[in-house]
């Protein structure tokens, strides 16, 4: 397996990204805690050549203003992907009400009952579990992030979200530059991701790549489709659709991809153990800033003008060394 | 049987022929192995062994091939069955993809590629059959639904490490059935973002149904069997080919032995000039060398035997047998043969023999032989008939030439002087001449010359005489020739008769043994004593055959009589011919073995004159016969050249005192003293004495008193057709005297 220890980090963003901040200890039970802004922020790393691809239609988030007590943050659990966003929110808000649903000492209904009794005006739900609970139990508008399969139709309160996947075009461009021989790329997702498919198709077209996709109904179907798709593609983009993936299937897909020389791009550093060739990561700070911006607008009464899903602005791409051949790929991390 | 000492030599071949007859008889008696067809053939045995070994190896190879192939296949069946479990996701596609015509077609095509797939069946969650794809003709054989127990067992496998069941028949491991649950699984809602290899995210599993895969590797098994059959056929062909090739190679390798077969057969037939092919193999080469050495040795032996058979051992001249052959040749050479036969007999030879001893006589004979050969030169052939009798064959000479030849011989002999012990002897000769005629056969010619020689001797010796047919001589010649034909007939037709005269112990009066006497039935039906025909037999060279007959018949009859009288002993006489034969001892041994007669029950008698005359030879034969276990008797002791000193050199068991001392013993005190002396000497030498010609009770009583051990004669018993055991009355005083003698011998 190619080790990403020797990987090269490309930060495709307007500024240097930083490593995930140390996750602060959550507030002790029973309900929530306030996350104090983390003092000294680490010095920015030497940035690689800027590869910022900012969606032109998305305005940059406004500078965060102190919103102490007006925003409640609910976490599905304290996994790094979620906690890093919570930490970023804390930095921006100075003080935030944080609720961890994984803490079973307080039932979800009690959590949201507490939020209703607080001064919070908006709930930022991090993770699908938190989003789904919030849509059912929260009396306040919900802004979700780090959630891929959100069905807002079941919600009784206004719901807006932040894209779980960073923009596709910049990492695809970087991938293409790292591997010029790349000719085709494919992906398999469950139903309901037409926008994502369209974005991917457009990004691929921009890079002159053939794009194939499959709509799956289960993990076995994903595997079945992957076995057939793998014969015709050079690369596969794995999206975090939990409905059509399982750990055994993921392992089988990666093993099959290795046997057939298909490169795989994943969405989480946690998947590095499976041996992907490319890791496309969102920036927690970008996620937090975007979510906070959406919350601000809702609180400002601009709910009707807020897009159901606000895209992210920054992306971090890591390409494993053997694959990376682009001369201007950036500095090694 | 009394054999005169003047007997022709050279009967070795007769003994040899007799030995061969015995060997053939023994061979026949031992199971007929003489039949060549009944013997095992070496090459066939080796080839049979080769084929058996090859067939055994082939059978083992085929069995190993079958079982080895079977084992490998069965091992592979298991492995293939496991490999098919990897395909369960693909095969289960209809359960999680739903029924899709294209999918089913694709699956059918996929399944069709694998002949070992018997059938694939998809089951619903409740175990009922959804549908199935048969890869074989399974008309009317529908897949049966899964039993509840099996359903539960399969459902329990969901999410396990080995989510399948493999069912195979112990008796038929070629068939496998793989049953597996097919389920879908989804990572729980936040699992993927929080995915961590060390902490597996939770998942939700949803059972879709079951898939059953029936595998039948009989196809491969059948192919294996077909291949094994082909391999077996090839192996059999190779075996047959290797058998044929091996046969050829073996035949070629054994050709060297086969090549020996014909020369050895020729050698066995007596062809000593046979040539052996040079062998390339060391072992065969050594055999060939041994055979060549054997042939060479046999040739030398034949030559020696031939020389013995054709030549007189004393002088080196032709003997009677060879002379007769030469005479026959001359007579056959022409329809009107001519020439002369000279019968030469030395005058006064007996005088030299008696006064100077037999060695001196032999030296004289050799000298005469040289003189005769010199005198005759290339005018004829000289032979010695025995004793002092020589013959000369002068082919083509006229009566005058014959006379001239005889006169020159007489003249040369008159000039011959033989010096012995300082004495000069002039030995003359008498010559009888018979002219060769087509009307006379060889026996008649020899008889005529012999008669003429006797005529010359009768006329004053040292002269020659032509045969002229007077009435008496013609009658004698006819008589001799008649005897010859009768003897031949008797030998060929087994017409001789044996008579048995008892010999009794003077101590006990009981018969201890019998002397076997030869008789022949005359024209008038009366018995003829051997004195009447043995001279003619000796003269015409028939003694060897008569000896053979006598020994064979005596031992045979002894074996017959021993059935009732196991202690019966026979004593028989042998001629000089018999003692001159090289293989006498071995032949006698074979006869005794053949008839199962103990050697100690046979006594061979040899006349004193014969023994003394051929002392060296007889001494050796006596030792051989004694070693065999036979006993020996010195016959006619006291006559002729009697010399007590010879007794020390002749280790005999009995001394038979000549009848001349016994005939008038009652009245002649000299004879009495002689007999007593012989008895005493015999006792001293450890020998027993037998008195012959005992014809009265007075002589019988007197002999006992003189210390003689045994007696034989008409008083005791005449020769009879069967051995009769007599018991004679004996006097007590004589018995005491002999006991005394016995004690002395024991000392």
Structure description:
The complex is a heterodimer of chains A (333) and B (747). Helices cover 29% and strands 18% of the residues of chain A. Chain A has helices spanning 80-93, 108-117, 128-137, 169-178, 194-206, 219-229, 247-260, 284-299, and strands at 8-12, 32-34, 71-75, 97-100, 122-126, 142-145, 159-162, 184-189, 210-215, 235-237, 263-266, 278-282, 309-310, 315-319. Chain A starts with 7 loop residues before the first strand and ends in a 14-residue tail after the last strand. Chain B is α/β, with parallel strands linked by helices and 747 residues long. Chain B is 52% helix and 18% strand. Chain B has 25 helices and 21 strands. In chain B, the strands form four sheets. In chain B, strands 13-14-16-17-18-19-20-21 form an eight-stranded mixed barrel, surrounded by four helices. A five-stranded antiparallel beta sheet of chain B has the order 2-1-5-4-3. In chain B, a hairpin with a 2-residue loop joins strand 7 and strand 8. The longest helix of chain B is centred in the first third of the chain and has 52 residues, at 218-269. Chain B starts with 11 loop residues before the first helix and ends with a helix. At the A-B interface, helix 1, helix 3, helix 6 and helix 7 of A face helix 4, strand 4 and strand 5 of B.
